[in-house]
Write a structure and sequence with these properties.
This protein is mostly helical. It has one domain: Up-down Bundle (Four Helix Bundle (Hemerythrin (Met), subunit A)), CATH 1.20.120. It is built from 4 helices and no strands.
């Protein structure tokens, strides 16, 4: 079953909303990702370690946001080219339920399972 235009439009709107949300989160997280500079004479070792751990967590979150934004951009390009909703491995249709759960999905459930093994 090929996606109907209204289904594709709805999924595109969800992708755009996710893109805006991740972009906002990325902007907010940039401050936390900056290099930690602490005055070692006034801050204890545990506080420095906490600050460094917080920075590392923020940087990893930033990497995940960037990867998410790239997946969303690729999905939007597939929509524009009329290639959206098809598995990139087997070229079969991706179930609408899977796309509703993750509108940036690139694999059908069978290929996704195989890639995890």
């Amino acid at each position: 079953m090929v996606l109907r235009k209204d289904e594709t439009d709805l999924l595109k709107q969800r992708l755009l909303a996710l893109q805006a949300e991740l972009t906002d989160q990325r902007a907010a997280g940039r401050e936390a990702e900056k290099t930690v500079e602490l005055d070692q004479t006034s801050v204890g070792r545990l506080s420095r370690m906490d600050a460094l751990q917080g920075q590392a967590m923020s940087q990893e979150s930033g990497r995940r946001r960037t990867a998410g934004l790239q997946k969303i951009a690729a999905a939007l390009r597939r929509i524009d080219r009329g290639e959206y909703g098809y598995c990139l491995v087997c070229e079969e249709e991706i179930a609408i339920q899977r796309l509703e759960f993750d509108p940036a999905a690139t694999l059908c459930i069978d290929c996704a399972r195989r890639s995890e093994q």
